[in-house]
Amino acid sequence: MTTKLKSPEASNLSDRRNLALEAARRYASQSRANSTWRTYESAWRVFEDWCQSVSLSSLPAEPNTVAMFVGSQADAGLSPSTLSHRLAAIRLMHLGQGQPSPHNTLAVQEVMRGIRRRSAKAGHRPEKKAPAIDKVVKRMVDQLDIESLRGKRDRALLLYGFAGALRRSELVGIDVHNIEAHERGHLLTIPLSKGDQEGKGQVIGILSQPESAYCPIAAIQDWTTAARITSGALFRRFFRNNKLGEQRLGDRSVADIIKDLIFQLKDPTLDYKHFSGHSLRRGFLTSAGQSNADLLKMIAQSRHSRIDTVLGYVDDPQRFENHAAKNLLK
Hints:
Elements: H1 10-29, H2 34-53, H3 63-75, H4 80-96, H5 106-121, H6 134-142, H7 149-163, H8 168-172, E1 179-182, E2 185-190, E3 202-207, H9 216-227, E4 236-239, E5 243-248, H10 251-265, H11 279-290, H12 295-302, H13 307-311
Antiparallel strand pairs: 1-2, 2-3, 4-5
Helix pairs in contact: 2-4, 3-5, 6-7, 7-9, 7-11
């Protein structure tokens, strides 16, 4: 005797499909940081408006349409890196709508290659933010009122961010449970970062400097004790009347704190406009390079996937230290 399987009702099928589609969209939206999605949306609107201005379809877009777009944008003064970002937005929008993306077709690639060559011949290079080297970090810390709660937070923020070669998003993303005490300092687990978008987790060591007034471990302990932080976000916002809140500090605040402290130094050799939240990370690598630190150790701390990127942080004079040609042609 066979039992006939009942077919689910059409309405039930539709509900299940809609739920599955909603789940897929929800997880897809979490594949990148919210700030990243905002920049892509902004870039897409620029492309969409341009297409409308010349009566061409933006979705789906023809390869020649995209080629003309990047060409006109380059003539308007946009850099190759900005154009690459806009092409990424065009790609995402097309793939999201089930359309083949024209971003990497031959017509577009040839135009982009020409733009990059012209930019290189003109001597244009990506702007690098100024490094907050160890001496500058110490000077910033020295002018903080470390008797105040805000001063304790900012000291811990600067020293920990520098010692960990952390990106600003990584720094403000630290929770108390990400830190494990070690006899030599802290083992810090970074749950999510630019180089680890899937959240596999990266562990670095934050070295204690017990004889120094600038020990990052001591600064963290002082901050968490004074603020009575035992769980949740490590770095938090202050509100009116210097009241400490529960909300996590925003990553843009890191840049604001650094810029403000550099400005307060009133040093004509340090332009606060050239500093950013990336300056601590860049400052660590620059300082480590100046002190002839082991390159592999630098890479282990910064977690860069490319050696040439780390070499870019080493100042030119340091390139002649222990040079490969030292004992040649004598």
